Amino acid sequence: MKIIINHSSMQPIYEQIAGQMKAQILKGELLEDTALPSVRMLAKEQRVSALTVKKAYDTLEAEGFITTVHGKGSFVARTNQQMRLEERRKEVENAFELAIQKGKSCGMSREELLDVFQMILEEM
Questions:
Q1: How far is CA 25 from the centre of its chain?
Q2: What are phi and psi of 3, to 5 degrees?
């Protein structure tokens, strides 16, 4: 499992860890029932507090991406396809929202934004 932490980012480290693990699960890079590194092991590898990793794991567990079995460790949860699709749709919506904000900040009208969207769709 590859995790890159940006210590100069405004995003909390536990969110960076959780986000990257979530992305790997959604992409199928981390498969169902795959054992995750222990909290202490990942903390040592990333040179962060074990509490930070624990918070990331707790976040992922609350969102249904991992399960923790006391005494055995944490594992990638058996996620249903619908949950994966919903997460991917959220990513697309966020990308559209950012693009619209950029367009509006450049003074583009609603019609211009729709024209650009149509043009891109036709090219694909």
A1: 9
A2: -130, 130
Q: Is the pLDDT of residue 83 over 90?
A: no
CB-based burial, 26-42: b 16+ in 10 Å, e otherwise: beeebeeeeebbebeeb
pLDDT for residue 26: 82
Note whether 109 and 71 are same-domain residues: no
Mean pLDDT of the chain: 91
pTM: predicted TM-score of the whole model, two decimal places: 0.68
Q: Amino acid letter at 37?
A: P
Whether residues 43 and 65 share a domain: the answer is: yes
Domain interval for residue 24? 13-76
Q: Say if 24 falls within a structural domain.
A: yes
Average pLDDT in the 78-83 region? 70
CA distance 47 to 6: 12
Half-sphere exposure of 100 (CA within 13 A, CB side): 9
pLDDT at 105: 95
65 located within any domain: yes
SS3 74: strand
